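User: Hey, my collaborator sent me this sequence without any context and asked if I could get a structure. I don't really work with proteins. Can you help?
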Amino acid sequence: EVQLQASGGGSVQAGGSLRLSCVASGFNFEQYIIGWFRQAPGKEREGVSCMDGYDGKTVYADSVKGRFTISSDHAKKMVYLQMINLKPDDTAVYYCNNGGSWGQGTLVTVSS
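Assistant: No problem. I've predicted the 3D structure and written it out in structure-token form, which is a compact way to encode the shape of the chain:
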């Protein structure tokens, strides 16, 4: 069974940092692009960043470039999202996904 479980969310003040973790199981990590997505209250889900599990290439949304960094540990089948200089607009439920079903997200709340 394919599973991607996000964790690591929390409440921080603007300018703070958090690192989200995503544990992947049930599929060949190197054969997928794994992405971080977020959904803010009252808004549609949007892509934040993604990484090609094969060659490590990364893509970032313009709104997070320079502040968020996606990384992975293939041995542990983990994908991380390091977030610095967080802004209130980053408040959302964050999910990791490989194109399949959506798992449980993790809530990030940034206060001004």
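In plain terms: Residues 9 and 108 are 5 Å apart (CA to CA). You can pass these tokens on to your collaborator as they are.
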